[in-house]
Amino acid sequence: MSTSTAADYVHGYSGAEAQRLRDQASALDRLLHHDTLFDPPGLVLEVGCGTGAQTVIVARQNAQCRFVSLDISRQSLTTATQRTHDLGLSNVTFEVGDVYRLPFHDGAFDHVFVCFLLEHLSRPTEALRSLRRVLKPGGSITVIEGDHGSAYYHPRSDAAQATIRCLIDLQAAMGGNSLIGRELYPLLVAAGFHQPQVEPRVVYADGGRPEMADYFTRRTFTAMVEGVRDQAIGRGLIPPETWEQGIRDLHRTAEPDGTFSYTFFKARALKE
Which CATH architecture has domain 6-270? Predict the structure, then answer.
């Protein structure tokens, strides 16, 4: 994801994280992107494209549009470029870029798309203003963010909640905000966008939806929490035994008699 420095990305840039992002995109494709559609033949700026997990979905279903996808991590862009090549997508150009210093003139794009970017930024309103600058008058922005405070599950577990809290606190310590989904409306207003509309998109998994329990509860959310183990324990945020119990309990929610729910927020707004 594009941030002020690549080190600000709390989840890191490992191969395991790249796979988690692909699993997340696959699990959430229909939920998040069935209506991520742009008027053709538009020029779309995507910022914080990472390894291209969301890029390939959105670019494929908007084949008549051209995409310029930016990230601050060259490593991630190498993976993204190869992924689009393997899938035969020719409507995407990747560039290294920083959301705070976009290398484009005013009004260069018809649409802007950002997914799981703002949560990693220390100055999200400033970032949104930067994105607004490069939009044409009448152009649209689409923003998708999660909210780790929206995770509800059965069986209940204080240890599991403590592990999630570690991720929230670690991200905050790095200048991010993993609870930002609930703030999209006021952020867009503060950045000067017109007519923002925000919709919650709820993921729910139980024994009747084993594929979602596997891909989202296990491979996406729990894997995301597991990824900050060393940081959480190393900083003394949680005792090792509590961490291990919390992770076991999160995996337990993906069993046939468990349940898991999480809310993403999808916002659209215009530039007057």
Answer: 3-Layer(aba) Sandwich (3.40)
